[in-house]
């Protein structure tokens, strides 16, 4: 009986060890689950359009190739069409391709990309240039969140590769409810904190709007923004609202 008893103890030990190992989550695993829950698996092969602050945004993504567009109608009824792809930026005015100064291309590209980037979060957080770190857990509005820091490599990280992001992903439903980021300003570092609301699912893809906050100028880090939000110490600047959203999936 002793060998059988010993075998039983060993099996029980390894099963317990396996269960404990499975409960240890990484930042990658948490983000992967959030992307799946939010329909991020559909975004890489899709055509998405929406309106934001009077401008039309269009995105086509197909197996790694992407074209991100923005249409602006001026007060004089001129039409400006910006087109950002994997390897180029082009601007058309009234359907005519114009020459854009080299110094302005990064600025225009970043402006187009940032709106599209936020529109489909957390999709994009598995890009090669992205580095994720789980900082622990935090309670906001009586809900528990994984707190994940995101930074970018210089190579492949875009013009603003040195920006820093923070994501609060719900332990309950694995959705991103809060996002914070820091960015370079002429006079220092700017910080924003966004609260998601008005969730809707369009053809399987999750979209949200945001309340856009900023902290006092003395705040230089993203780490305590969740607590500052809880304490009512952030100033509401604006609302980030997407309208007329459409999603068409591309079959391959």
Automatic annotation (TrEMBL):
Query: Pfam families, per this entry?
Result: DUF6503
Recorded hits in InterPro entries, A to Z, give: DUF6503 (IPR045444)
Task: Please identify the protein, giving its name as recorded.
Answer: Deoxyribose-phosphate aldolase
